[in-house]
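Colleagues,

For the teaching module next term, I've prepared a clean inverse folding example: a structure given as tokens, and then the sequence designed for it. I'd like students to try predicting residues themselves before seeing the answer, so please don't circulate the second half yet.
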């Protein structure tokens, strides 16, 4: 059983929901990424989503775009992100790590080289925004052969027939984008989320995580009432962006701990 599947199984048996925070690797500086990953776990994170910096994002809002720009100024690339994951694994052998990013860096490295390096570094899952299922059969197969869960995004506009086609390839969990927009938007419709998550879960047979538009503990709690996992990205990245260097780790840990407490109520 993969680390992701094991985590969801353990949480389900305890009647708890997964908290999946996102940060961009290399933001605000390369040497802060692993301490931030550890701070997220200390705050109560169950799975970590680690963004691979990219210059031309299509799903990320302004906050996460700025975090990629800061990381890219330090010349952080995919190989650096894998090295950071490997360093994190030296002290944490249990918390799953999912890489979130775009196809270009993977294509540049090559599928086989990427899958081998990701597995060796301790990566558990890959969420590649611009690899639609029609164009990623072979990549998904190579991920599976390497023991990596291939995670797909589903949108509010995804038709049911396409949901079924996508979830047949999905592994680990399914990521439902809760709104029509980019990360950090704030027009979340909880009734629509509930209806869509139920349909997706029935089709997928996998846990469903919900992200985009979740920026506080109370919204996270409401989303957790209908989903298996809550993903929070822009709000945490903004905490990093606005914190003084000496207080950043504490601020991030405390924010995540507040969300964790709300989910466990």
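(Answer key — instructors only)
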């Amino acid at each position: 059983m993969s680390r992701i599947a094991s985590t969801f199984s353990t949480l389900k048996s305890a009647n708890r929901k997964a908290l999946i925070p996102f940060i961009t690797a290399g933001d605000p500086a390369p040497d802060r990424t692993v301490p931030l990953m550890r701070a997220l776990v200390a705050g109560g994170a169950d799975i970590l989503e680690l963004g691979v910096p990219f210059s031309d994002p299509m799903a990320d809002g302004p906050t996460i775009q700025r975090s990629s720009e800061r990381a890219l100024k330090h010349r952080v690339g995919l190989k650096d992100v894998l090295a950071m994951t490997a360093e994190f694994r030296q002290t944490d052998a249990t918390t799953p790590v999912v890489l979130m990013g775009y196809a270009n860096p993977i294509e540049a490295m090559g599928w086989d080289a990427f899958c081998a390096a990701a597995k060796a570094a301790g990566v558990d899952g890959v969420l590649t925004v611009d690899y639609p299922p029609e164009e990623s059969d072979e990549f998904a197969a190579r991920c599976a052969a390497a023991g990596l869960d291939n995670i797909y995004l589903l949108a509010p506009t995804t038709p049911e027939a396409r949901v079924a086609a996508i979830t047949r390839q999905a592994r680990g969990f399914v990521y439902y984008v809760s709104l029509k927009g980019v990360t950090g938007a704030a027009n979340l419709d909880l009734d629509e989320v509930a209806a869509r998550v139920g349909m997706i879960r029935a089709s997928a047979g996998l846990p469903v995580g919900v992200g985009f538009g979740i920026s506080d503990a109370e919204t996270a709690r409401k989303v957790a009432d209908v989903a298996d996992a809550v993903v929070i990205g822009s709000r945490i990245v903004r905490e990093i962006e606005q914190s003084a260097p000496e207080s950043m780790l504490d601020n991030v840990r405390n924010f995540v701990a507040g969300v964790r407490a709300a989910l466990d109520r």
